[in-house]
Design brief:
Chains A, B: Belongs to the class-II aminoacyl-tRNA synthetase family. Chains A, B: It catalyses: tRNA(His) + L-histidine + ATP = L-histidyl-tRNA(His) + AMP + diphosphate + H(+). Chains A, B: Its EC number is 6.1.1.21. Chains A, B: Pfam families: HGTP_anticodon (PF03129), tRNA-synt_His (PF13393). 2 copies of one chain form a homodimer. By secondary structure, chain A is α/β, with parallel strands linked by helices. The first copy, chain A, is 39% helix and 19% strand. In chain A, α2 packs antiparallel against α5, α2 (27-46) packs across α12 (335-349) and α5 packs across α11 (252-266). The longest helix of chain A has 20 residues, at 27-46. Chain A is elongated, with a radius of gyration of 29 Å. At the A-B interface, α1, α2, β1, β2 and α4 of A face α1, α2, β1, β2 and α4 of B.
Chain lengths: 450, 450
C-alpha cells in the first residue's frame, strides 16, 4: 500500500461512502441474515433440493436480449481486453445457462446470491442496487401440476417457518389468456399491457384501472368481460373454482387448477393459498401457474409488497440448451424484505445478540497470560468466549459482557488466584460463586449451564 | 424474455461457457463448501468474532492507489452514468473503508466473500478470477502481542478442525528489517526487492536466490549477513529464538517475539507454529508479526502453496479514518485451496452425499396424490424426503434412492395399500418391513432410525 496523494481529512471523508444503492451489513444485521438464511436453506433441503452457485458475472451475450426492457438496468464491466462481461440481473438466466453448460435435464435446486440492477434505489421499501435473491426451482418433466404443487408447498413452509402471517395468491396465466383473448376478444398483442393494468388492482381502485383499459383501446363490452372474470373472488379456492366453472364451462385449464387445489389440500397448505383470478404479475415468461405471497398480519401495513413470487415457465430454461425444452416451476423469496421485517422485530424485542457465552475479566494485577490460558482452554472445549484485556473498571467489564450477550463472566482476581480460586458470575441470574481454578471443572460447570 | 435472434444451436453452444477464470459450483461442490464454511464460521464465532459484509463493488476512488502494481488487475465497471465503480480485489481495503464509514475503533470480525482479479487463471493450482476470501481480523488497541497470539491460535484451530496436517511459519517484519537494513546495511529502498527474492526460498535453492541478490547489487558481505540470519532454523521456536539472541544480543524485537511464543505455548499451539527467519511474504503493508501456513502431510505434494497467511498491519485500517490509526492483526484462509483438498478427499472416499433421508417410491397403480400426502407429512415433521413420481422399474427407484443418499425408502404398493400397509426398506441394512399406513407411526419409526 503506497502512502498516497490523498492525505487531507476532507478528501478522506469523501472516500468513505459506499456506492449508491449498496450498503454494508453490520454485525447485528449479519447475525439475523445468517440465521434466516440457514432456516431457509433447511426447508429447501427438506425437499431434497440441492444448492448450486454461478459466477457474479457472465459473458455479455448470455444476458443480451434476455431481459427485454430491463436490459438497460444491467451493469456492464469495462472493456479491459478479453471477453465483454456483465453482472447478473437475476439468478434465472444464469440458471438456464447452467443447465445447458452441464447438460442437465432435471434438477430440484436452490440458489442464494446477490444480483445487480442499475435501478432507482429506495431504502424504505428495501430496493437496492445490490441485493439477495433466493430461488427455488423444480426443472424437468413431472406429471401435470405435481411440481407446481410442491413449489407452492415449499414457499408456504418457508413463510410459516419464518413466523410470518401471509396469504399466497394463485392464478394461471393460461386462464388469464382465455379470459382476455378468447372471451373478451382482446388482441394478443394487447395482453401484456392489459395485465400491467390489472396488476395495479392491489394499489388502485377499479375505476382508475378501467380508465386505463379504455385508453388502451378496450371497449365497454371487453372491459365488462374482464371485470366479470376478475370479480370472482372468495376466501375459498374451491368456491372460486366453482364460480369459474359456471362462467367458463368445459374449460380444460380449470381441470388442471382443480387438480392443483386437490394436491394443495392433501399437502395441508390450502389455508394459506387463495385462487385469485385478478392476480396478473409481470407475465412475459410465465406459461402456467403463477403466485404471489403478501403479508396479512400487522406487518401488512409496512407497505413492502410481495414477499415471495413465482410460477411455471416452460420455455425459459431450455433456451441455451440444444434441441430440448426444460419445463420448470419455481419462485423467489423476497429475502431483503424479509430481512427488514426480522431486523425490525429484533429491534422491537430489544433482545441482545449472543456473540459469546463467556467473558473472561480480571480484578487487580492479573497477567494477560493467565486470561489467555483459560480462554484457550474454553475455545478448545468448544465454548464461545472472549477476553477483556483492558484494565477498565469492573462495572464496565460487566457491562461489556452483557452487551455481548454472555451468560457467564469468569473473573480472575489477584486475591482469588492466590487461593487458587476464580469467580464465576451468572449474568442472567445475577448470582456468583467461587470455584477452584481447575480448568476441567470450570468447563464442566459452564457446559452444564449453557 | 423475448424469443430472440439467437436460434441456431451452433450459436447457442457458444453461449454456454462461463466467463474466463470463473466456474459454476455443482451440487456436490456446494455441499462440501457449505459444510466447510459453516465449520470455519463456528471457529471464528468461538472467539466472539462478529461477521460483516460489504458490497462487491465500491466507488473507484476507494481502490485507487491502494493496490500498487496489482491495481491493473482490478475489474472496473463500465461508465453507464453516475459513479465510477470497481470490483473488490480483496476484503481488506473494503474493511478499512467500513471502519471509517461506521467510525469503529475496535472490532474482532470475520468476513467471507468473493473477490475479483483479472489475473491469469490456473485451474490446477486453484487460481480463479472470481474466488472466495475468508478473513479474520482483530482491529484496535491491544497489549503487545496479545492480538497477534490470538490470530495465530484462531488459524491453528481452523486448520486442525479441518483435519489438515500443517505447519505455520512465523516471522516478524521488523526483524527482517533489522537483519537486512541495520545489520547487512542494505538500503531501505532495496528492502522489498530483497524480500521478494527471499520469498522464493521455498521453491528455489539458495544458489539461485544468491545470484538474484548479486544482480540486485548486494555485495558478498551483505549476502553473507543475510544468509547467516535466514539460516537460523530449528524445529523448536525456542531454540531458534536462542540463536537469534546470540546473533543479535540486546535486540528489543526479540523480547516481543519471546512474549508471543510464550503466549502460543500457553494456548497450546506451539507445536504447529515454527519461528522461521527466512519467511518473507509480500511485505508492503505488514508492520510486525507475519505468518504463513503450509501443508505437511501427504497432501503437501499437491503443490498448492500456502493455505493461510497474514500478519500485523498497523497503518492500513486507519487509512480512510479521520485522525486515527487503527492497529490490526489478521489473516486469510486459502479457502479455495482447502475446498479443492476436501473435494478431493470426498471423491477418494467415494462416500455418497446425503441429499435426503427418505425416498418415497411406488409399485403398481398408485396416484401421485398419495405419494405427496405422505411426503408432505414427512416434510411437516422435519424429515428430508423426496418423491419418485415417474413410473420406472423398482430396481431403478432403489438406485435413485441410494444415489441421493437416502437411508429409507418407503414404498406405496398397490397391493399393500389395499391392506392399509406400506413397505419401509432400510437401504443401508438391506432389510425391510411392512408397517400399517398410519402416518404418525411411520414418522416415529423413521425418526428413531435416523
Amino acid at each position: 500500500m503506497s502512502s498516497s496523494i490523498l492525505k487531507s481529512s476532507s478528501i478522506k471523508s469523501q472516500l468513505i461512502k459506499t456506492a449508491k444503492g449498496t450498503r454494508d451489513m453490520l454485525p447485528d444485521q449479519m447475525f439475523i441474515k445468517d440465521k434466516v438464511l440457514s432456516q431457509i436453506k433447511d426447508i429447501f433441503k427438506l425437499h431434497g433440493a440441492v444448492e448450486i452457485d454461478t459466477p457474479v458475472f457472465e459473458r455479455r451475450e448470455v444476458f443480451q436480449e434476455r431481459y427485454g426492457e430491463a436490459n438497460k438496468l444491467v451493469y456492464n464491466l469495462d472493456d479491459q481486453g478479453g471477453e465483454l462481461l456483465s453482472m447478473r440481473y437475476d439468478l434465472t438466466v444464469p440458471f438456464a445457462r447452467f443447465m445447458a453448460t452441464h447438460n442437465i435435464q432435471k434438477i430440484k435446486r436452490f440458489q442464494i446470491g446477490k444480483v445487480y440492477r442499475r435501478d432507482q434505489p429506495n431504502q424504505t421499501s428495501g430496493r437496492y442496487r445490490e441485493f439477495y435473491q433466493c430461488d427455488y426451482d423444480m426443472a424437468g418433466q413431472y406429471k401435470p401440476m405435481v411440481a407446481d404443487a410442491e413449489v407452492l408447498k415449499v414457499f408456504c413452509q418457508q413463510l410459516k417457518n419464518l413466523d410470518l402471517k401471509f396469504k399466497i395468491k394463485l392464478n394461471d396465466r393460461r386462464l388469464l389468456d382465455y379470459a382476455i383473448i378468447e372471451k373478451a376478444l382482446c388482441k394478443q398483442e394487447q395482453f401484456n399491457s392489459i395485465c400491467t393494468s390489472l396488476d395495479k388492482l392491489d394499489k388502485e381502485p377499479w375505476e382508475s384501472v378501467k380508465e386505463e383499459l379504455k385508453l388502451k383501446g378496450l371497449d365497454q363490452d371487453q372491459i365488462m368481460k374482464i371485470k366479470e372474470f376478475i370479480d370472482i373472488q372468495s376466501e375459498s379456492s374451491v368456491k372460486t373454482l366453482e364460480q369459474l366453472r359456471y362462467l367458463y364451462p368445459n374449460n380444460k385449464i380449470l381441470d388442471e387448477i382443480q387438480l392443483l387445489i386437490r394436491y394443495l389440500e392433501e399437502m395441508d397448505c390450502q389455508e394459506n393459498i387463495q385462487l385469485d383470478p385478478s392476480l396478473a404479475r409481470g407475465l412475459d415468461y410465465y406459461t402456467g401457474m403463477i403466485f404471489e405471497a403478501v403479508l396479512t398480519g400487522e406487518e401488512r401495513n409496512l407497505g413492502i409488497g410481495s414477499i415471495a413470487a413465482g410460477g411455471r415457465y416452460d420455455n425459459l430454461l431450455g433456451y441455451f440448451s440444444k434441441n430440448q425444452s426444460i419445463p420448470s416451476a419455481g419462485g423467489s423469496l423476497g429475502i431483503e424484505r424479509i430481512f427488514n421485517i426480522l431486523e425490525d422485530r429484533h429491534k422491537k424485542s430489544k433482545s441482545i445478540i449472543n456473540n459469546v457465552d463467556v467473558i473472561i475479566g480480571s480484578m487487580g494485577e492479573v497477567e494477560s497470560l493467565q486470561l489467555m490460558r483459560l480462554a484457550s482452554f474454553l475455545w478448545d472445549n468448544n465454548i464461545k468466549a472472549d477476553i477483556i484485556h483492558e484494565k477498565i473498571r469492573f462495572k464496565d467489564q460487566i457491562q461489556q459482557a452483557i452487551s455481548k450477550g454472555a451468560k457467564y463472566m469468569i473473573v480472575l482476581g489477584e486475591d482469588e488466584l492466590k487461593l487458587n480460586k476464580v469467580l464465576i458470575k451468572n449474568l442472567n441470574e445475577k448470582s456468583q460463586l467461587a470455584l477452584d481454578f481447575e480448568k476441567p471443572q470450570i468447563i464442566e460447570f459452564i457446559k452444564k449451564g449453557l
